[in-house]
Structure formats: structure tokens, C-alpha cells
Amino acid sequence: MRRTADRLFKGVALGICFALAACAPPAAALESGAERLAGKRWVSCGDSITRRGGWQEPVAARFGLTHVNLGVGGASMAGDRAQDLNSDFHLNRIIREDPDIVTLLAGANDLADPDITLGTEAEFAKPLKDKDMWTFLGAYSRVVESLLAWKPGLRIVILGTTWGRKDGLDIRPFSSSLTLGDFSEASRKVAAHYGLPFVDLYAEAGFDAGTMGPPPRDKYSIDGLHPNAAGAARIAELVARCFGRDVRFD
After folding, report:
1. What is the DSSP letter of 213?
2. Nearest CA-CA partner of 180 in 198, 166, 163, 165
3. Can you give the pLDDT at residue 169?
4. d(Cα 60, Cα 66) in Å, to the nearest integer?
5. pLDDT band at residue 176 using 50, 70 and 90 as cut-offs
6. Closest listed residue to residue 140, CA positions, set 154, 126, 155
7. Where does the pLDDT of residue 13 fall: very low under 50, low under 70, confident under 90, or very high at 90 and above?
8. What's this model's pTM, rounded to 2 decimal places?
């Protein structure tokens, strides 16, 4: 009888363990944060690297997000054109989509415009009306502050400017010493000041002269600037890691 009771007890205990295991969410799902973000609306904003897509789709699928691509080819963060990301026109486009999450990626076209400078962190303290829209930091802070004033619970994620051919030294007019790395670092300063998640694409994506050039150095790009499918997958990997770790609504 004792052996029979022991066997029955072990069988019941084993059954409970299997039942608990079956009910528990998969570890990978818990780590990815998919449950937290499922059903949220994400708007990606930026230049042609955003507009061309390829990296947003796997992130949206992984987290169950509804994604809207508002990237604009040739857009800068700074400047006074309607297509530039700090413009009222573009801000209103974002607001109309009523997102829960916004990603911002800029810098390549800012580097190419000789009228745009980095500016200083003094821009962060200025009222919206006084920010210098021809500085990267002034325009970026205008965008962030405008969006958070509209929707304080909005989650904004800053993506660092990606590496481009010769680090941008051959696309900045008049032999400027500014590089894409400088604009990436400025993006990091924006994220740090406003307490926003930052994805360091410049340092972590693996984009450089050995991976973004003509064959055989074309692992991530063939034109030295725009990611190919493999490059987009690398961006997706880094953005997904950030979403799973840092984007929360509790």
C-alpha cells in the first residue's frame, strides 16, 4: 500500500508540474516583451533609411504592433522645408496617426546640408518658439517636446544616425569636418536629456567601409549608405532588443 501511495503521489506531483509548465508563457515571449506591446501603434519617422523599410516589418511582427511608416526620402531633422522632421506639417502627420510609440532616425541629410549645424545643448532649455531650427539639436528637441506635450504617455525611441560612405566626409559640402558619428552622438544627447531609449546604430550595427561598399564589401549595403536586406535585418535586431527591454507602458 505504501509503495502504491508513493507512486500515486509522484504521479500527481508530476502531473501538476506538467500542467504548470503548459500554462506558463514561453520564456522567450516573456523576455521579448511581446505581451506588453501587442496591439500598440508604432510610427517610424526618418529619412530614406526609414522610408525604404525592411527593418520595421520584422519588429512589428515580433511584438504584434500596428506599424505606420512616415519616413520621407531626403528629409533632414533640421531645416525649414515641409518635409523636414521638425516641421508642423510632419508633426501633424504623426499626431494624426495617434501612435503609442514613435521612433526617430535622422542625421544623414542634415550632414549633407551646409546650412545645418549641430548646435549646442543650450537648445534644450529654450522655449519651443525660440529653438534654432537650423541646428540639429534645436530641431530634434522641438520634435521631442512637441510630441510629448501632445501626448505625455507617448514612448519615443531615438535611433542613432547610421554609418555612411567614408563616415559622411565625402558628402558634407565645403570640406566640413563633421561626420555621421557626430550626428549620432548628438542624437544620443537628445535621448539622454529627455530620458528616452537610444539605439546606437552607428556603433553597434556593424556598418563600415568593409560591409557597406561595392562588392565584395557589400554585406550590408551596395551604395555605402542605404541598408540592403541583411543591413535592414541588423537594424531590426537592435531595435527589437530595445523595444523588448526598454519600451514599457506600466
Report:
1. S
2. 163
3. 63
4. 7
5. confident
6. 126
7. very low
8. 0.85
CA distance 217 to 229: 15
User: For residue 105, with 0-12 CB atoms within 10 Å meaning exposed, 13-18 middle and 19 or more buried, which class applies?
Assistant: buried
The cell numbers describing 100, all together, are 503609442
Domain boundaries, the chain: 1-32, 36-246
CB-based burial label for 108 (10 Å; 0-12, 13-18, 19+): buried
Q: Which residue has the cell 519600451?
A: 247
What average pLDDT does this structure show over 175-186?
89
Contact 170, 178 (CB under 8 A): no
pLDDT band at 177 (very low <50, low <70, confident <90, very high): confident
Phi, psi of 137 (to 5 degrees): -70, -35
Spell out where the chain has E strands. Answer: 41-46, 66-69, 101-105, 155-159, 198-199
- pLDDT tens digits, 237-250: 999 999 999 999 98
Helix axes 136-150, 180-194, angle to 10 degrees: 30
Helices H, strands E: what count in the chain? 11, 5
Long-range contacts of 179-183 (CB under 8 A, 24+ apart): 179/111, 180/107, 180/108, 180/111, 182/118, 183/106, 183/107, 183/108, 183/110, 183/111, 183/118, 183/136
Q: Which residue has the cell 509548465?
A: 21
Q: d(Cα 32, Cα 176) in Å, to the nearest integer?
A: 42
Please give the CATH topology (third level) of the domain spanning 36-246. Answer: Rossmann fold (3.40.50)
Mean pLDDT for 45-66 is: 97
